Amino acid sequence: IRKIIIAIDGYSSTGKSTVARQLAKELGYIYVDTGAMYRAVTLYAMQQGFIDENQFDKDALAKNLHLINIRFEVSSSTGLAEVFLNDVNVEKEIRTLKVSRQVSPVAAISSVRRKLVEQQQLMGKNSGIVMDGRDIGTVVFPNAELKLFMTATAKDRAERRYKELIERGEDVTYEDVLKNVVNRDHIDSTRKDSPLRKADDAIKIDNSNLTLVEQFDQILNIAKKTI
Ligand code: C5P
Known about the structure:
The structure is a single chain. By secondary structure, the protein is of the alpha/beta class. The chain is built from nine helices and eight strands. It has a five-stranded parallel β-sheet with strand order 2-6-1-7-8. The longest helix is centred in the last third of the chain and has 17 residues, at 174-190. The radius of gyration is 17 Å and the shape is globular. The N and C termini lie close together (7 Å). The mean pLDDT is 96. The site of cytidine-5'-monophosphate has 14 residues, from helix 2, helix 4 and helix 8. It is found in: Cytoplasm.
C-alpha cells in the first residue's frame, strides 16, 4: 500500500478525529490529532496561571514555550495514542470544556503555531499519516495527496460534543457546549495566522445527515481511490 498524507480539516466536533482514527487503523497509517497538541499547550498555560476567564498573559506563554514538551504514546490498554505534557498523561484533562473554552485564543498565537506545526511536519515526513486539525491541508501539509474538509450544522456538532462530555461524566449543559462550538469556530476562522478554511483542493464532506458508518465508508472509498 502506497504511503500518502491525508489531511482532515474542519469545524469543531464534526467527527474529524473519529473518522481520522478509523481511517488510519484501516490503512495501517499513523494518526495524529493536532487539536490535542493545542489543548496540551492550553492546559500548560492554565496550570501556570497564564490564562483564565479574565486574563491571558501571551508574553509569558511565548517565553515559556521551550519548556513545553508534547508527545503521543500508544496506551497498552486501549491501543489508542494518548497525549503527554512534560511526561504526564493529560489525555482526559485536555478534553474538558474548561480547556475547550481557552484553547482558541492560545491557538491564535503565531509562536505557538510555529512550534506545533514544526513538530507536526516532522511526524509526517515519512508519509503514511492521517492528521486532523484546522490548517493541515492549508499550512502543515499543503502538498498532501488527499485533503478532506468536514462540516456539519452547529446544532449537530454541539449535540455530538454534548453527548461525549456527558458520557465522560462532565457536568455541562447543551447550551454551554453549543456556545463553545460556535465561539471556537468564530475565533478559529477569523484569526490572522492560519485561519480555518477549506483548501482549494480539499473535498468537502457535510456529514449532518450521515451516520458514522456511512461517513466512514464514503471517506474510505475516496482514500482507496487516491492511494
Ligand atoms: O480539534 P479540537 O477541537 O480538539 O481542537 C481544539 C482547538 O485547537 C481548535 O478549536 C483550534 O483553536 C485549535 N487547533 C488549531 N489548529 C489545528 C488543530 C486545532 O488551531 N491544526
